[in-house]
Amino acid sequence: MGRLVADRLDRRFVDSDAEVEERFGKNGRGLAEEHGVEWLHQVEAEILLAALGGPGTAVVAAAATTADRPDLLQRLQDPGVALVVLDGDAEVLWHRAGGGDHRRSLDLESARRLARRRRETTAPIADMVIDVGGLPPEEVVDRLVGLGAE
To answer: β-strand 128-131 against 58-61: which pairing, if any?
Structure first.
């Protein structure tokens, strides 16, 4: 969805998963196995900070770990940054995320705990929270593009 939003707003798109793979030739799961989860999270943080400080305005698909880092959450509250949280029922999101091999495997209960913790840290500072569970991607993009036009 991020790429669709960026295209419609004629902005640069930065996807932390794609950036990790481009830089290191491996996906996040492989790098976490090789270097550790904390190392991967640091790389993801660097990608987010570079995207926020880069030229022009970007649409950034940030790594979920962003919600666990107070320094990144603070940066996302800067003027000129619009934070949109795509949320939903943890089970629905867990099934969707399970389709890729680039993320670590989580059981449903762990996914619920993570979703709850991330919701608690990001929703209070978000410019918009969208429950994507029952929405088609086109409607989510329409809502996001409406925010970007403001």
So the answer is: unpaired
Residue 112 makes CB contacts below 8 A (sequence gap 6+) with 90, 91, 94
Dist CA 12 CA 5 (whole Å):
10
DSSP secondary structure string, 21-62?
A: HHHHSS-HHHHHHHH-HHHHHHHHHHHHHHHHHSSS-EEEE-
Residue identified by tokens 């481009």 is 22
Q: What is the pLDDT along the chain (150 residues), one digit of tens a residue?
A: 889 999 999 999 999 999 999 999 999 989 999 999 899 999 999 999 999 987 778 899 888 888 889 999 999 999 989 899 888 887 777 776 665 555 556 678 888 888 888 889 999 999 989 888 888 888 889 988 876 554
Pairwise CA distance, residues 29 & 43, whole Å: 13
Q: Which are the contacts of 18, defined by CB distance < 8 A and separation ≥ 6?
A: none
pTM reported for the whole predicted model = 0.80
Reading the block at residue 52, the tokens are 């926020």
Domains in the chain (CATH in brackets) are 2-148 (3.40.50.300)
Distance CA(114)–CA(19), nearest Å, equals: 23
